[in-house]
Design goal:
By secondary structure, the protein is of the alpha+beta class. It is elongated.
Length: 232
């Protein structure tokens, strides 16, 4: 990757920029922000900017952004292995499987033990099938699923096959669980959280999510939007 320089970086020739996406921003918000900065500060009349793997608005962490000719590498970068740190709460569910919507159901959770979780999590390692959340960007009959969900409709979303390489328990203090997930493109961590809750005869929703790595890019190596603004 070319090092971004305040004066010499040729964004049209192509740069790969690892961004630490802030919470509340969509991936397209970040892309549009960088495109605006490049046009306004670097006088590019037209420049391609894209990202290599969507992050939910409530998620933070590694978002790889490509400019100019580097956008040709987006498919290659999307296929790289991803690592996530997720926190979840047992005993409750939300329609979006995260904090975007309010708790809609409650379940018992006192029976959940670490040993039970260790056994249950192994069921989700390897090739598995999962159904993406209703509140997701999946297309259903020409519309985004989240658009239908926000209208009060229940989009019919087909299950898909995804691959998870590893799930590690980082911390468990019932009803809270922190895990690290190593997986491949197309995996919805929110759906994994929902399925984990069901697997231990309870419910669960994701309280936070951070993508800590994507391929060779780690969150510690990412630029914040403020840093990029100053550099561009």
């Amino acid at each position: 990757m070319e090092i971004i320089n305040q004066n010499t970086t040729d964004f049209q020739a192509g740069v790969i920029i690892p961004v630490d996406k802030p919470i509340g921003w969509t991936s397209f918000d970040v892309v549009n922000k960088l495109r605006y900065l490049l046009k306004f500060n670097r006088s590019y009349k037209k420049i391609k900017v894209g990202h290599a793997g969507t992050l939910d608005p409530q998620a933070t962490g590694v978002l790889i952004v490509c400019t100019g000719k580097a956008t040709k590498r987006i498919s290659e970068l999307q296929a790289e292995t991803k690592v996530y740190r997720a926190s979840m709460k047992f005993g409750e569910t939300t329609p979006s499987y995260d904090s975007e919507t309010e708790v809609d159901k409650t379940f018992p959770a006192e029976h959940i033990t670490r040993e039970m979780l260790e056994q249950s999590l192994q069921k989700f390692v390897g090739e598995i099938t999962q159904v993406p959340p209703a509140f997701s960007a999946v297309h259903v009959n020409g519309k985004r699923a989240y658009e239908l969900a926000r209208e009060g409709k229940k989009p019919e979303i087909k299950e898909r096959t995804v691959r998870i390489d590893e799930i590690k328990i980082e911390k468990f203090e019932n009803p809270m669980l922190d895990i690290q997930v190593t997986c491949h493109a197309g995996t919805y961590i929110r759906s994994l959280v929902r399925d984990i809750g069901e697997s231990v005869n309870s419910g669960a929703w994701m309280t936070s999510l951070q993508r800590t790595a994507s391929g060779d890019f780690h969150v510690d190596d990412c630029f914040s939007l403020d840093e990029l603004k100053k550099m561009i």
